[in-house]
């Protein structure tokens, strides 16, 4: 998919988010920088605990108020820093400007409220529609996301819908007020594979039709390949590599990204090539490593990696990675064969 | 924090590869901590719960040795010294209308409450757990019959059971035991059954079952440990309820009969004399309230420690 | 839903029947009869009394007579009050107890919900700790301690409230407040726990993501979902209230059913004990039934499944 050249609609700069818990301060996001352009899909990829969901929720300021600490950074949207907006101003951002789809459709709808009301709620709040108008619009929305018999469906409760259908409802709620940015937090993880493809297809279709920008949070590179324009790889609370889908898949520059790519099955690849897992576990967010977050698991780790955070090295207009291997004094390391071979 | 803000002197040795074996990457940092060890660590950090635990231990100790700390006995009646106000040099908690030392009577009365606490614990742990676990484990018709029985028992107010037992037998510790024994285990049985039904559907249980574990092993190794902690938490709430209940029965004259003492009976006497001798109400009431508060606080602490998901 | 309700209803009647039968036969084991209670009687008078209470009939007949009376709402005659009908005594005294109980529930519910909601929304704040402290105190200080203390301080010392009897509404305030403390404490703790649970749910985050105000999220989504489990504590709460009413009425000398019950125990007035027991059981079983049905009505997941398991 071609890169969308356009202005950034949303810029996240050096975002740092922590949670205070009884086990100490959890540094979930430790300096994330990325931007989202008008009409594009940006995928933020990382394993669980990498901080991708927390970063996504920070954009809408949805992390629990009681124990979230913003340690720094800014999120610029329409010239304003969302982190500094009053709660009241945020109400007008959530919904009509930025909307969100969550991971688990089984739990993200209020079980005691009819589906219709859950959609209409948003319409009444932001667009000031009357009951009748809102009901008509809600039915349209359900049809838009591919739910047949919309009128009747509006009167049903969430438990009367299947998982895939519920996720469509959640998407309909997100689209209700024509948002400019849609944040989809692992929208397909909890769904069957066949349903996953339908939902991804739906998102792509809706993007084309409505022209919105999408931030797609996922741990699944397979999902990314078909849907996103650009990828940001997140690890240990930091964005460690960003680039276009093509660049990340064919010329990845960071050993963690190599590891990620080596651990997904490729239909075209030779069966004899084994999947290679990345050994070890992600860093402890209560006591993050002071150097490169991946150093402890990196097969190419050097002494500097353990002590110093690598800066970004730029490879193209879009492509940059944070890795000491690209320092002039570093030894020359060949990318593993499986990844170059995939070309 | 950021490298860009700091000068690093790059030397070739910084770029020496670090050689690590595959095991290093998989190494788990820190010693493994078991479920109970982990819970204990969390509990210790909760100062309120620790304090409550200490208070409970102190009260248990006083209930046993308290009467020996004074030169008096709980039932010795000396009319010349009736209604002595509490003082540090004489009677610590004062004396009642028969000149009996309230200090001694309060701690003897506490023993009744502790006996009730122990009784409820045993009923919950043994009968409730076994009944609930079997009913949930076997399911089907067995479960159906067993649940009907519990449903009927639950439907009978414990107050009524107690009143009837007290009327048929003589009021006292035996009829109290029977009344609590008849109905005290039903709520834990229902709770355990619910948990077992849920656990039965979980993968680790199915896995163990498909590996051929027998019924005894399944129940003792997989079901009991997984419901035990819930039982301990509920116990911290059922104990004060039962202690209350005894005191209530004694208060309306159906529990422990004079000259024996229980906290409820003492409170009843104290309430009658409150106008002129408020200390007769204050001391037994304070001990009773301390017992229940301590159990509840310890219960809250245990819940947070054993079931961290309930906290954020 | 209808089938489910019917099943529950039948169940409730079976439970009531068993309780009544068991109680009745146990009563026969009790020492004491109306004849012993009275002063010296001539043999004729004794025979007359025996006839009034059907004591001359064999046990099964007595049981049958009692049960058939029960179906007609006749609970027999008291051993005291010159043999007045138990039903009459209960009907006379019940309204007072119901009034006290209802007033206590209303006050307790309002205060409890307020404390619970505030402490959940202001989690870990000073409000939260304050409410938690009050709640622990409320459940840990029993009625039979609180009632004499309130009577002493607020009644005798400060002279704000009357300390006994039931002559005006003002007389009911102190007893109701004592009863309401436990209700408020239980509801506050419960509401807090449930609300925190619901506040962490995805659908609440989604509601926030819709741009609803905090108030709207709480009112439309959080409260509704946290109030459903509240139905499940109705039973223990009613139970607590019944024992509470016994104590409060006794302490404040209020002529309600609870005070009558306690007195009947001392006076071994079996027909009244029996009648009150049945009434309490009906109360219990009915609240159980109501709880299940309400649960089904409020929660659409259960309504369709038709079964709670």
Automatic annotation (TrEMBL), chain B:
Domain ABC transmembrane type-1: 110-299
Domain of life: Bacteria
Protein keywords: Cell membrane, Membrane, Peptide transport, Protein transport, Transmembrane, Transmembrane helix, Transport
One of the protein's GO biological processes: transmembrane transport
CDD domains xrefs: TM_PBP2
Signal peptide interval: none
Membrane topology qualifier: Multi-pass membrane protein
Principal localisation: membrane
Protein name per UniProt: Oligopeptide transport system permease protein OppC
């Amino acid at each position: 998919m071609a890169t969308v050249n356009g202005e950034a609609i949303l810029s996240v700069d050096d975002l740092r988010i922590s949670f205070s818990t009884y086990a100490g301060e959890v540094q979930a996001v430790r300096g994330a920088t990325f931007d989202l352009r008008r009409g594009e899909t940006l995928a933020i990829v990382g394993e669980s605990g990498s901080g991708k969901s927390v970063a996504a929720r920070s954009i809408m300021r949805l992390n629990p108020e009681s124990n979230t600490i913003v340690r720094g950074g800014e999120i610029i949207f329409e010239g304003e820093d969302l982190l500094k907006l009053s709660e009241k101003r945020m109400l007008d951002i959530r919904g009509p400007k930025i909307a969100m789809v969550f991971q688990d459709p089984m739990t993200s709808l209020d079980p005691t409220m009819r589906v219709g009301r859950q959609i209409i709620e948003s319409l009444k709040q932001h667009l000031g529609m009357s009951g009748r108008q809102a009901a008509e619009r809600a039915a349209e929305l359900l049809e838009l996301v591919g739910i047949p018999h919309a009128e009747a469906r509006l009167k049903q409760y969430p438990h009367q819908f299947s998982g895939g259908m519920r996720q469509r409802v959640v998407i309909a709620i997100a689209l209700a007020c024509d948002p400019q940015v849609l944040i989809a937090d692992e929208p397909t993880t909890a769904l069957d594979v066949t349903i996953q493809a339908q939902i991804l297809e739906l998102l792509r279709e809706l993007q084309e039709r409505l022209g919105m920008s999408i931030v797609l949070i996922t741990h699944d590179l397979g999902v990314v390949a078909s849907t996103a324009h650009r990828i940001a790889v997140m690890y240990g609370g930091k964005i460690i590599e960003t680039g276009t889908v093509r660049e990340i898949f064919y010329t990845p520059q960071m050993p963690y990204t190599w590891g990620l790519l080596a651990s997904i099955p490729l239909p075209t690849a030779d069966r004899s090539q084994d999947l290679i897992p990345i050994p070890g576990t992600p860093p402890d967010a209560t006591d993050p490593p002071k150097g490169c977050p991946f150093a402890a698991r990196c097969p190419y780790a050097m002494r500097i990696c353990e002590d110093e955070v690598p800066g970004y090295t730029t490879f193209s207009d879009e492509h940059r990675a944070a890795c000491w291997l690209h320092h002039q004094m570093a030894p020359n390391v060949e990318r593993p064969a499986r990844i170059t071979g995939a070309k | 924090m950021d490298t860009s803000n700091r000068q690093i002197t790059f030397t070739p040795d910084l770029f020496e590869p670090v050689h690590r074996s595959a095991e290093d990457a998989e190494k788990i940092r820190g010693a493994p901590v078991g479920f109970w060890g982990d819970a204990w660590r969390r509990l210790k950090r909760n100062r309120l719960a620790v304090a409550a635990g200490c208070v409970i231990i102190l009260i248990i100790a006083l209930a046993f040795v308290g009467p020996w700390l004074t030169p008096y006995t709980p039932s010795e009646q000396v009319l010349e010294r009736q209604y002595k106000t509490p003082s540090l040099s004489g009677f610590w908690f004062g004396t009642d209308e028969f000149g009996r030392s309230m200090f001694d009577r309060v701690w003897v009365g506490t023993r009744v409450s502790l006996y009730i606490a122990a009784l409820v614990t045993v009923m919950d742990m043994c009968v409730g757990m076994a009944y609930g676990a079997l009913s949930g484990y076997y399911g089907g018709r067995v479960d159906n019959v067993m649940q009907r029985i519990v449903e009927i028992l639950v439907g009978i107010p414990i107050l009524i059971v107690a009143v009837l037992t007290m009327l048929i037998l003589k009021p006292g510790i035996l009829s109290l035991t029977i009344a609590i024994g008849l109905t005290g285990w039903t709520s834990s049985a229902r709770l355990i059954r619910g948990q077992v039904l849920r656990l039965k559907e979980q993968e680790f249980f199915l896995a163990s079952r498909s590996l051929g574990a027998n019924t005894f092993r399944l129940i003792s190794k997989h079901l009991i440990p997984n419901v035990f902690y819930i039982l301990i938490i509920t116990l911290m709430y059922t104990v004060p309820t039962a202690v209350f209940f005894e005191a209530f029965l004694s208060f309306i004259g159906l529990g422990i009969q004079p000259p024996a003492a229980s906290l409820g009976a003492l409170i009843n006497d104290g309430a009658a004399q409150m106008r002129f001798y408020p200390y007769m109400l204050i001391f037994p009431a304070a001990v009773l309230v301390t017992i229940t508060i301590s159990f509840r606080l310890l219960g809250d602490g245990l819940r947070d420690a054993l079931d961290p998901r309930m906290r954020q | 839903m209808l089938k489910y309700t019917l099943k529950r209803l039948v169940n409730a009647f079976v439970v009531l029947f068993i309780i009544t039968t068991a109680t009745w036969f146990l009563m026969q084991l009790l020492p004491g009869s109306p004849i012993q209670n009275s002063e010296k009687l001539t043999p004729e008078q004794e025979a007359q009394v025996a006839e009034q209470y059907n004591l001359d009939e064999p046990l099964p007949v007595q049981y049958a007579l009692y049960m058939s009376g029960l179906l007609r709402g006749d609970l027999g005659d008291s051993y005291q009050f010159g043999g007045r009908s138990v039903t009459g005594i209960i009907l006379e005294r019940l309204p007072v107890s119901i009034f006290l109980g209802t007033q206590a529930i209303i006050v307790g519910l309002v205060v409890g919900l307020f404390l619970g909601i505030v402490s959940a929304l202001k989690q870990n704040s000073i409000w939260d700790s304050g409410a938690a402290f009050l709640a622990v105190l409320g459940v840990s200080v029993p009625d039979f301690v609180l009632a004499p203390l309130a009577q002493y301080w607020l009644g005798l010392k400060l002279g704000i409230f009357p300390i006994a009897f039931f002559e005006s509404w003002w007389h009911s305030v102190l007893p109701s407040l004592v009863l309401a403390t436990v209700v408020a404490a239980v509801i506050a703790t419960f509401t807090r726990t449930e609300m925190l649970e619901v506040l962490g749910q995805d659908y609440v985050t989604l509601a926030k993501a819709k741009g609803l105000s905090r108030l709207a999220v709480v009112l439309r989504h959080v409260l509704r979902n946290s109030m459903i489990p509240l139905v499940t504590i109705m039973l223990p709460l009613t139970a607590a209230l019944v024992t509470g009413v016994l104590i409060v009425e006794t302490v404040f000398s209020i002529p309600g059913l609870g005070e009558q019950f306690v007195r009947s125990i001392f006076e071994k007035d079996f027909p009244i004990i029996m009648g009150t027991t049945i009434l309490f059981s009906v109360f219990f079983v009915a609240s159980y039934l109501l709880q299940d049905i309400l649960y089904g009505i409020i929660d659409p997941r259960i309504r369709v499944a038709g079964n709670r398991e």
